[in-house]
Amino acid sequence: MYAVKPSEHMLPILVLLLVSLVPPAISAFDRLRVDLTHVDAGRNFTKFELLQRMALRSRARGAMLAPKAAGGSANSISTTDVPVSPNAGEYTIGVSIGTPAQPLLLILDTGSDLVWTQCQPCLSCFDQSFPLYDPSQSSTYSRLACSSKLCQALPLSACHAQCLYLYSYGDNSTTVGTLASEAFTFGSANNVTVPNLGFGCGFLNGGIFNNESGIAGFGRGPLSLISQLGVGKFSYCFISYDDDDSKSSALMLGSAANLNGSSTNFRSTPFIMNPSRPTFYYLSLDGITVGTTRLPIPKSAFALQQIGTGGVIIDSGTSITQLTTVAYKLVRSAFLSQVKLPVANSTAEGFDLCFSLPSSPSAKVDVPKLIFHFEGADMDLPRDNYLPQDSSVGLMCLVMFDSGGKISIIGNFQQQNMHIVYDLDDQKLSFAPARCDQL
């Protein structure tokens, strides 16, 4: 999801999800673990079917992001261990809200800020796994005043004896509701309850959802969960998309987000601020190597322009990495020339470049390296993060796309089995290879 600035004619109505007027002590988040649910869990998709579903969602998300991040009208509001489950596209986090607690399933989204869930009574709501949150059944629910800082931070709001909001996203999903505060409970084993988090209580909602209740914004703006909690860093470690459903990934906050002290393989690269898109986590990508060849990609392919167009973002909500056309064509051409396998007719399979695997399962398949050269840090990707094999269909496909626009997106498929740390205090991204199912 990507938050966009609503049109002037859209009726302002507000919801504040996850705002903390009295931020809790960071120590309260130590070792907190929250389970995340796989969107396709238990649905018996094959490995390649999961990839195809991921591809469809990525193309749709990327197509909406490209024009929104190009500087047009798009704009968003300018220590815990949380388990996450990959869902072949998105990652969701299970939390509870209210007193007594009511369960929610929220999309983890580093591309937006607002935290919100569907609420009763609802004028229009999409299907979700859990019953709708009912604020009338909670003793800790409280509407936020129009004069509150969180209400003032909304991109579009209205005051009718309460703070109302309208918040929309790049894929045309929207939520309209009341800005409020509530107690949120995180954790699967050692639960931690945080009072007075600002969130949106949505009574008019629509868009593309897969049984989730709403969205947990992890962007850089003041409405996001991270900003409200006041933690200086967070990290995640995504398990392989085809791991069994009994395993989970981890989202960690505060001191728990640090890379393993014994790791000597961690790298760091600075975040870049784009004033026209302050929510996104922009990085400086200097180049790409395939095999032993550093590709002749012009610097302009990844440059963030002064008018706010272009650039490279890292995103939890986009499944598959998407590069600008000039960069993608060079990457594709390099794999085409270096992989010594016949090219498959992949048009119907949903991928731009696939190779036919040898008929013998014991045959060795040589795969060239793929390295992203960020400023001060090289990301050497595991082969399964860009050329996964599926022997059941006899294919090995390049899991990467042409963005069709000026922006490039580092998706979560390429981040599997890597510990990714967002250091907000030092404004940098750190990463290291990891066994995420053992973290």
From TrEMBL:
It comes from the Eukaryota. Residues 1-27 form the signal peptide. The active site is at D109, D315. One of its GO terms (cellular component) is extracellular region. GO terms for molecular function: aspartic-type endopeptidase activity. Residues 91-432 form the Peptidase A1 domain. The keyword Mitochondrion does not apply. Pfam families: TAXi_C, TAXi_N. GO terms for biological process: proteolysis. Keywords: Aspartyl protease, Glycoprotein, Hydrolase, Protease, Signal. InterPro entries: Aspartic_peptidase_A1, Pepsin-like_plant, PEPTIDASE_A1, Peptidase_aspartic_dom_sf, Plant_Aspart_Prot_A1, TAXi_C, TAXi_N. PROSITE patterns: PEPTIDASE_A1 (PS51767). PANTHER family: ASPARTYL PROTEASE FAMILY PROTEIN, OS07G0603500 PROTEIN-RELATED. Belongs to the peptidase A1 family. This is Aspartic proteinase nepenthesin-1-like.
